[in-house]
User: Fold this.
Amino acid sequence: MRGTWLLLAFLCAGCSPARRDVVGCVEVRSELTRQGPHALRVEGELYNGCKVKLATVSAKFGILDRGGAQIESIDAVTEDLNPGRSWKFKIPPTREISDEQGPVHLKVVKISFTAPH
Assistant:
């Protein structure tokens, strides 16, 4: 079993509304949060709604500047996610993104999952 889906971007001005994306039996809840002028991060959870344990579940996020250029890429990946279970994550960018860059957007680029053979 393998699933992949490309998704569209949404606007986030400092703190984004929660987002829910579903691909097959996997659900990704995510939001872009800011807890200070430089404390930006992607928070969320990957949920296994499948009837089998998933070997790998991943979501790739892009942080875009106000002009739509990608300024950061963030991956949330977990392994061995049992049915009906979720994995929560809080992932900061690898570089500082300040308020001076204006509102930023969070884009879910790809969601994928694999089951053991």
